Each structure stands twice: as structure tokens, then as C-alpha cells.
User: Fold these one by one.
Assistant:
Number 1:
Amino acid sequence: MSAVIGDPVTAIDSPALVVDLDAMERNLATMAAYARDRAVRLRPHAKTHKSAWIARRQMEHGAVGVCVQKTSEAEALADQGVSDLYISNEVIDPAKLARVAALAARVRLAIAVDSAQGVERLAAAMRATRAAIDVFVEIDVGHGRCGVAPADAADLARRIRDAGLRFAGLQAYHGRAQHLRGVEERSGAIEAAGAAVRAARAALDAQRIECALVTGAGSGSFVLEAASGLWGELQVGSYVFMDRDYADNESMPGAPRFDHALFVKSQVMSRHADRAVVDAGHKSHAIDSGLPRVWGRDDLEFANGGDEHGILRANRPGAPLPALGETVWLVPGHCDPTVNLHDTMVGVRGGLEQGVVERLIRVDARGALS
Ligand SMILES: Cc1ncc(COP(=O)(O)O)c(C=O)c1O
């Protein structure tokens, strides 16, 4: 075990994934207040933290429930007492759909579909239970991933109703838009997504099918969805931790501020005239969205040293390198896959310098990819 409750931060073994609980709680409260003030529902995405404890904290802050991306992720959180889950993704395998149906008998559950076959198979699985499930039609709002064309949403909604299932509304998430750096390009992408939502709603109206809710949005764009009057629920995930990639986005006018709350604690294990080598490589942090930033040291650059090593070099003349044995805090490039590399996150109260280990946060859905 890399940490013991009550120990000072300095005693946490490295590398370790550390949550600054004060920063995380500020982020939870800020997003909850934002959604409340704009009268939109908040259903944060638990794929970011994969932790039932954090999901429950989000619900204590007013979230209606959480999203998950996978059946096994939903099962892992339900097993730990999370009672309202939305699988914001397609499930097509009959055996897996039987698990979805069984889960619907235990918790309040919703799911997304984007095919007639998906509806038929879901309906068949649900017939074996007396449980209910909310079904959202996913529309492609510009991501080019899952989702039907907006004009086809009504046909699928009708199939859902005809199959005896409950049509709950539209899933409209634009993942690529989240990471467009500039405000103008992000705004353009969500404007186009809004046009897709309007088109889908018009198709539903034409068939007199009520659309109770449009759900979507991520941490890079939620200000736009919330202001649009189209989306009624925000699925923001990364705001809880804020990774380096999100910090590199130009911030939206009017967007609340979120703090980095997820760090990898590392230690210098080898020191040379031109570089310091830390004990955290890409088995400690995901690098799909780029390398970590060295917290509090803009004058140092992190280079990938492999599975178990990170190499720090000065990026300004004369910047001092950390000494052998010194602690170096890293802000991961991408929080979701970083969390999935760890069994436990170490929750720290009182800051990274003087803080104390308050809680060990289990990554309940670690490796829940099916
Ligand atoms: C369907 C869906 N909704 C919401 C999110 C949360 O986005 P973010 O972590 O950018 O806030 C994701 C993230 O990938 C997603 O796939």
C-alpha cells in the first residue's frame, strides 16, 4: 500500500495517484452551482473517476445520477451503492444486454441506442425482467462516432415505443469539440451540434413524439450547451480532476474555473547535469493526450522515459533541476485513462506540501471495459 490514512503527504510512496480533496470538492461545488443556476440537470460522467465514492459525492452535490460508458462499469458502481446510472453508449451483445436488464432490476437505469437491431435486442432482454429502462436515441452531432443522423431519430424513437420501451430523449455528445483549443472553433462545433439537435427534434415533432430531455456536453463545452436552451442535462466528466489537456484549452467567457485535483506523486531517482529522472513513466499516467506537466515548475519539461521513467529537463536557461530524492508532482495529460492505471487514489487534505492522507479512494471500476 502506497499510503496510510493519517500520514503526511511526504510519506506517500511513489509513484502514486493523488487526489487533492480540497480542489476536487471546489470543482464539485462549482459545477453543481453552475448547473443549478442555469436550471439544467447534472449527470456527471463517472468514466473519469470510476469511483462509487466520488459518484456519491457528486449526487450529494445535486447530480441526478451519473453516466457510465460500459455495462461492467455500471455493475461495479451499482455494487457499491450508486443507484442511478445512465450507460451513455451502445450495447449490442445479447449476453451483455441480459446483464443490462438484470441491472435495471436493481437500480434506476438508462441506456443509449443508435440502431433498430439495438432496440430489438434490448427489448428482448428487457422482456425477461419486469424492470424498466429509459432509452435515449444517440444522434451524431458532428463527432463522427456513434449516433444516427438527426433525421433518423424519430424512426428509432418510434421503434423504441413500439417495442414497449420508454423513449427518454436524445443523447447528443460532441467529444471532439471538447478538445478544440480555441473558443471560436469550439463554439462553432457546438453551434453545429445544436443545429443537429434541432433537426432531430423537428423530426420527432413531425411524428408527434415527445422529447423529454436532450443530454450531452463535456468539460470543454458545457457553457455552450447550457446556454443553448436545447440541452437539459450536462454529462461533464473531467471537471472533477482537470487534466493538463483541458488546462491547455482557451477558457470560455463566463466559464467557471476548475482546479487541477489529480496528480502523480513522483520522486527523482537519478540525477545528471542536464536532467533529473523521476520514477513515473507511462505505467503511472496515460500519454494519449500528451505528457504530464510538472506542477509549479513551468521551467521544467517532462519527456517520456518509458514505462517507469520520466525525464525532466530545464526549458529555460539556468532553471535548477530537482535534487536526487526530491518529490515532483505531475499533472497528467488525460485524467480518465490515468485513473484506470491505478487500483487506488490517495485522497489528501490540506494541500500537496503540508497535507495529510484522509482517504484511500478505490477505483471500483478499474479495468471495467466490457
Ligand atoms: C458520452 C460522453 N459524455 C460525457 C463525457 C465527459 O466528457 P469530459 O470528460 O470531456 O467532461 C464523455 C467523455 O468522453 C463521453 O464520452
Number 2:
Amino acid sequence: MAIDSKPLNLLINTHWHFDHTGGNEWFHAAGASILAHENTRKHLSKATRVEGNWQYTFPAAPAGAIPSTTFKDEYSLHANKTTLMLQHYLPAHTDSDISVHFVEADVFHTGDTFWNRNYPFIDYSTGGSIDGTIRAAEANIAKVTDSMIVIPGHGAVGKKADLILFRDVMAEQREKVAALKKQGKTLAEVIAAKPGARTDAEWGNGFMTPALFLEWCYQGT
Ligand SMILES: [Zn+2]
């Protein structure tokens, strides 16, 4: 598949974060309308504070960057000879996450509910949690077939096996952190115990360090 010279007419946001909506104003100016979950519109319409390691208040997006079409649970459309099925997740990475299934092409886009071999950022300020992240991973595994191409929010394009690995790594570290926290360990002690030693070298060298990811696990257990 290649990008052709036809005019842009539709942009889909998988959630509200700036690294997935930062092109909205440009795409809108180039002629595209913007489609997203209703909570993406809500968060982009006003100043939104994100705590955790971001510690930043995102200003309201410019008018052209605000999604003009929104939905709550599901939305389907037909474009470029394929059916697009959009579905909202229960709160996971944020409260605005959607998946996009390109049915005939057999491609499934998970947005930021799936980071392929990278520890995820989890936005507790707008509804995300480690348990919601694991729940969304389970939903993705139930939905995806062995033949599907899976597009993550971050990391390389993958397959169902990569989703299963992501779910297993999330669940394992959540359980280890929960057990240490129950023993009364502080966050610093949990980080020092290196519960992710098996995957830290590969998964913790991107946007999220092992310590930051453990903070999300600690906060949610
Ligand atoms: Zn995100």
C-alpha cells in the first residue's frame, strides 16, 4: 500500500495524547475531517493536566484540531474499498482509547493499548491504569486472529504473539509489584528489587524507563 496524491478527507485519532493528535490542525487545514472517541474531543477542547512523569498541563487544542465527529462505543465506515470498524476500550491507557479494524485488509490498530516490546506510558490523569491496560490487552488478544497485522501505538508492527507477550509482561510485573507493595516496600525499594530484570534491557530503553513503568504498576495496585 502506498500514499497517493488524492486529497486527504479523514483523520482518525486513537486517543487524545499529543503524540497522536499533534497533526490534527495540519490535516484539518489540508481538508481532512477528524474522527475520534468523544473523550478525545473532551480532552482536546480544554486544558488537560497530566501528572506522573509528564507533570504538564496541555493547553486546549486549536479549533481546527478538535474532532468534528465523535462516537461513544462503536463506529463503522467504508473508505478506500475497506470497512473500518472503530471500537472504544474500557479505560486502559486513557479513557479515550479506540481500536481501528481494517476488515478486508486484515489489519488491526490498537492505539496506545499496545506497545510492542516497550514499557507503556499509562495516563492515570485521564482514566488509564495498569489493570485497564491488562484488560485492554486481553480484549485485543480475544479480537485478533493469527493472520492479522497488528499496529501498536509504539514499537514495531506485530502479530498476535506480540500481543500475548505484552499481556504476559504487564501481568507478571503487576503481580510482582503488588506482592512487594503488600510487604510494605516503598516505590524506591520496588524499583531497586528489579522485578522486570528479564525484560528491562529490551523494553525499558525507549520513551519509558523501567522505573517509570514500575511507578504506574505501584500506583495502580
Ligand atoms: Zn498515548
